[in-house]
Amino acid sequence: MADAREANARRLRRLTQMRKTDSISGACRALQGIWETGRKPEAIVLRSSLLQASEERSRLTRLVLPKGIALRFYLLAAFEAQCRLNVGEEWENALPLSGPGSWSDLVAIDGAYDTDSATYMRSTVGSRKLENLRLQQIKGALRTLEELGGEHALVTMPRGKSGQRQYKKFLLMNESGRGGNQTPDVYTVPARHWAAARTITIPAAFFLKGWIQVLNPSEVATWLILRMLSRWAPNKHTTSGVYLYGQARLETFGLRDDAWEDGCQRLREFGLIRFAQPPDIPPGTSSELKTVFSQPIRLRRRYEPHYWQVTDQGLNEDAAKKLDQELTLRQQELETAARHRAQKRP
Q1: What pairs with residue 159 in β-bridges?
Q2: Is pLDDT at 295 greater than 50 in this prediction?
Q3: Residues 282, 290, 231, CA angle at the centre, nearest 5°?
Q4: d(C-alpha 157, C-alpha 212), whole Å
Q5: Residue 31 backbone phi and psi in degrees, to 5
Q6: Phi, psi at residue 161, to the nearest 5°?
Q7: 166 vs 100, 102, 147, 323, CA distance in Å?
Q8: What's this model's pTM, rounded to 2 decimal places?
Q9: What are the residue ranges of helices labelled H in 38-116?
Q10: Res. 15 pLDDT band, cuts 50 70 90
Q11: Is residue 123 within 8 Å of 193, Cβ to Cβ?
Q12: pLDDT tens readout for residues 105-144
């Protein structure tokens, strides 16, 4: 419980700093500009191969890391590509890494924090210093995406004469990775009408309202998996919700129990998913059917997974504001629980 309290406090502190420095709203404005000057897609299409496990872990879950922005950057790159390119067009880098109109503009960070003084270091608070830190984060993300290794790499970068990475010339790979051929499988924009088992759709609001900036990698992974399940079984998702047992989750997606359970709980608090509810009863429904649908959801038996429904309405809220509310409330609850435990000690 103490770890949960400390982790939540740290997350709330980082969120507060990003809001204070206009980091989140600045990144949202930059993404909005890309969207408005581009094709204005209602949703970003992601190949489901990113989620599917191979050799115990998927490319997605290998990017669920405590530090770094690799998963966020890959999704941002897909967003930028689909705002700019038509279906089937091949990706090539159109943005500089830093400076005005760059990849750095699309990423929100909080800065360097000094734990001894419990303050943010002044040398990293200014806009120029933050831009340097964002550039470091982007380079780190590109290394992580490349170091997935071999055919799994989601980015490739040419090398200079002395072997150094040429970050500015990076190539984005398809969600299934570089592939095993000599010619890399460079990213192309997928079609939205592809079979449900092959694609996932991410509403543009996920990027434009700041959710991409504030959700943890494990929460993003959990949310994407639930979105995939909702496409696999749309009728079941609507009527009774979707679920995933631990063994199936690990074998299919490679996501661990703690990441899944914590991710589902936070996503529910943030309003992006909910416990399964019966469908809305349309006008004119017979009294017998109304009686069936009005029954409360059955109690979940021990060891049975929760049934979930994805609720895209929550994406239209300001992500930073919503998280500030929910994390503050959770911190108060965790602090109260800690005080009660301390009072019970002999």
Answers
A1: 165
A2: no
A3: 55
A4: 25
A5: -70, -40
A6: -60, -35
A7: 20, 16, 15, 37
A8: 0.89
A9: 70-84
A10: very high
A11: no
A12: 999 999 887 777 888 876 555 556 788 899 999 999 999 9
